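Consider the tokenized backbone below.
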């Protein structure tokens, strides 16, 4: 009895088998299409809402910590501890006026805490990453210890009316302890969080993008398969029932063709959007944000060398290593050779006869800008980096000559001593503007991609049911003839 169900000797059985094959091909086509579109949504969400923002948040922790450290070093450099320690609620009176660096420090401290908590929340929502959560908690705990050491250094510094750029020894001891917490604990942990998150983004982006592209090929192949199956069904009905054409099957073929083309085109567009969001948006945002954070830390290293001359060589080496991270020159062995070669490398950038002959964060940015024919904005950024390094060279020369107060004054703004040198601020502002520009690329690509995908969760199953109904409508009258 069961064997008869699979016998195709009768015409109705053959029509039913061909119809089932067509419907199965339709189901497979739209299932594969749905999976590919789901991958597109997952890739967009990874860059726009999940892993991407988590990485930016962890880098914001690094940036805020570096900014906090810069405020502390500038205050100790200029001897403005009294205004730093002023507590308006406790001290009161017109003589108590809390300094702007202290306000900036408190704001950046809140920013660091907020970014750390955001990174923890996103990590927990993503996959309950316990190690990352523990690292975030460790950063928050270390931040409290750093606050205590900074407060102690300010208290010690206030007791002695020290010269500009000269820190009393007891204050220097507390400052060194604060520096160790910042440079050996907080900043490395924040950097590790950023690197781990970047690896997660790479995995969350790369696999779905690969599946989207292969899915697009499968959609085209399966769409063609459905059309071949429809053509076979139409040919059999025309030959067996003397019907030249079935309008329902023609409509099903047209609908399948239209939806296959639309789906394949959408997948190609979404893949381009995802790739653009990652390579022209997220990657430069992360790279330039890390450059900016490294620059702030590097700027603080120069102050450390001034405040702690006994350990200046170590701080100079750290400064050199961070400079190489930002813009790498292979032939440079120390800061003096770096200064000299930097001027030549940056001066040649953008010339048609010269390729980019430096590496690091800026090397990658410069190479990509030349490939797109957009050298001018990056050239301006490199000029500002070179100007800042030239001022640093002057500061080091004054410090080596024993003119520590002149070196300290050359490092800060001539008018507002609580601010870094204008050359550094211009460089930092240019970096921030580039970050914002690339972040807009991420936001636009994610917004456009999600907008294009929005109707498909209901349009795809509705289309599959519509085509299936057309197929059934095309064969039903022929089967009815056998009743």
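A designed sequence for it:
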């Amino acid at each position: 009895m069961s064997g008869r169900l699979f016998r195709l000797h009768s015409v109705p059985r053959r029509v039913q088998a061909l119809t089932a094959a067509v419907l199965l091909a339709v189901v497979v086509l739209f299932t594969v299409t749905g999976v590919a579109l789901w991958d597109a949504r997952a890739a967009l969400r990874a860059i726009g809402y999940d892993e991407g923002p988590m990485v930016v948040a962890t880098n914001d922790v690094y940036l805020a910590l570096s900014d906090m450290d810069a405020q502390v070093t500038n205050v100790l450099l200029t001897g403005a501890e009294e205004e730093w320690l002023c507590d308006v609620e406790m001290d009161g009176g017109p003589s108590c006026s809390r300094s702007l660096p202290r306000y900036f420090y408190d704001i950046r401290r809140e920013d660091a805490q907020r970014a750390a908590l955001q990174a923890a929340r996103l990590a927990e929502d993503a996959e309950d990453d316990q190690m990352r959560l523990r690292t975030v908690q460790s950063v928050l705990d270390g931040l409290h210890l750093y606050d205590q050491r900074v407060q102690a250094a300010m208290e010690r510094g206030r007791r002695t009316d020290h010269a500009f750029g000269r820190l009393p020894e007891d204050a220097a001891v507390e400052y060194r302890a604060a520096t160790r917490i910042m440079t050996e604990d907080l900043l490395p942990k924040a950097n590790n969080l950023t690197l781990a998150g970047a690896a997660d983004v790479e995995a969350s982006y790369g696999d779905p993008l690969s599946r989207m592209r292969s899915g697009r090929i499968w959609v085209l192949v399966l769409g063609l398969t459905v059309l071949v199956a429809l053509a076979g069904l139409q040919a059999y009905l025309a030959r067996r029932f003397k019907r030249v054409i079935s309008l329902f099957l023609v409509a099903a073929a047209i609908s399948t063709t239209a939806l296959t083309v639309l789906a394949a085109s959408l997948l190609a567009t979404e893949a381009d959007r995802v790739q653009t969001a990652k390579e022209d948006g997220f990657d430069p945002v992360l790279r330039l944000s890390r450059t900016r954070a490294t620059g702030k830390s590097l700027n603080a290293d120069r102050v450390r060398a001034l405040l702690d001359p006994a350990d200046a060589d170590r701080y100079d080496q750290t400064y050199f290593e961070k400079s190489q991270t930002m813009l790498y020159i292979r032939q440079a062995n120390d800061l003096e050779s770096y200064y000299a070669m930097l001027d030549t490398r940056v001066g040649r950038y953008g010339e048609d006869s010269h390729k980019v002959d430096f590496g690091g964060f800026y090397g990658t940015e410069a190479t990509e800008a030349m490939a797109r024919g957009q050298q001018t904005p990056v050239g301006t950024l490199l000029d500002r980096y070179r100007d800042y390094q030239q001022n640093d060279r002057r500061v080091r020369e004054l410090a080596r000559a024993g003119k520590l107060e002149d070196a300290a004054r050359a490092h800060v703004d001539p008018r507002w001593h609580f601010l870094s040198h204008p050359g550094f601020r211009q460089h930092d502002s240019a970096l921030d503007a580039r970050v914002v520009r690339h972040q807009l690329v991420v936001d636009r690509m994610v917004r456009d991609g999600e907008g294009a995908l929005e109707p498909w969760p209901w349009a795809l199953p509705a289309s599959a049911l519509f085509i299936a109904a057309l197929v059934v409508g095309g064969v039903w009258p022929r089967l009815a003839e056998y009743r």
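The two ends are 21 Å apart (CA to CA).
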